[in-house]
Design a protein that fits this description.
The protein is α/β, with parallel strands linked by helices and 184 residues long. Helices cover 24% and strands 29% of the residues. The relative contact order is 0.21.
Length: 184
């Protein structure tokens, strides 16, 4: 973390939010056996695992979890100079007639979520799709709305939110950082 970064979530607060997200998922979905979690690369995977563990503690249920890579479904893949690396999608169960909780760490424009919805449909036809995010920073470009939100924040367009996980997937918090400017 750089000196100018400021925390919007400390570790203790972030852990409480994960517990609240898990509780809200259970409240909205009476039959936990219908629910599967899909974590979006990369932060969404760690968050989905934490929610899965909380659901196990609260409900005693082993909720299936999958990993989704949206690289090939991005709408900016041909318009940026960035190199995009395709990683493995792992969804070892059917999505048909399941309640899919799509999990991401930060929701901003909605474009990643749109790409995730497109990618997910290649794996089946869910009964319902719900979106869980740790942080919603607003400023949507597409009509995407999360079902479960840990924290809403409003920050300048020149800033970004970085959710911090350690190498074991422990949630350490979230900070606001200045976006790096690309030379013109």
């Amino acid at each position: 973390m750089a000196e100018q970064d400021k925390y919007v979530l400390k570790q203790e607060q972030a852990n409480l939010i994960v517990s609240r997200l898990a509780t809200q998922i259970l409240e909205k979905n009476v039959n936990a056996a219908d629910v599967v979690l899909i974590g979006m690369r990369t932060g969404g995977i760690f968050l989905a695992r934490l929610i899965q563990e909380k659901l196990r503690q609260l409900e005693g249920a082993d909720i299936p979890i999958g990993v989704l890579d949206i690289t090939l479904y991005r709408d900016d893949i041909s318009t940026t100079d960035q190199h995009h690396f395709v990683r493995k999608t792992e969804i070892p169960f059917s999505l048909n007639d399941r309640v899919v909780v799509l999990v991401d760490d930060v929701l901003y424009t909605g474009r990643s979520t749109r790409a995730a919805l497109d990618a997910m449909m290649d794996f089946g036809r869910p009964k319902r799709v719900q979106l869980a995010v740790l942080i919603d920073r607003g400023e949507r470009e597409l009509p995407i709305r999360p079902d479960f939100v840990g924290k809403k924040i409003s920050i300048d367009e020149s800033e970004r939110v970085e959710v911090l996980f350690d190498e074991t997937g422990t949630l350490l918090g979230a900070v606001i950082q200045q976006r790096e400017r690309t030379p013109s």
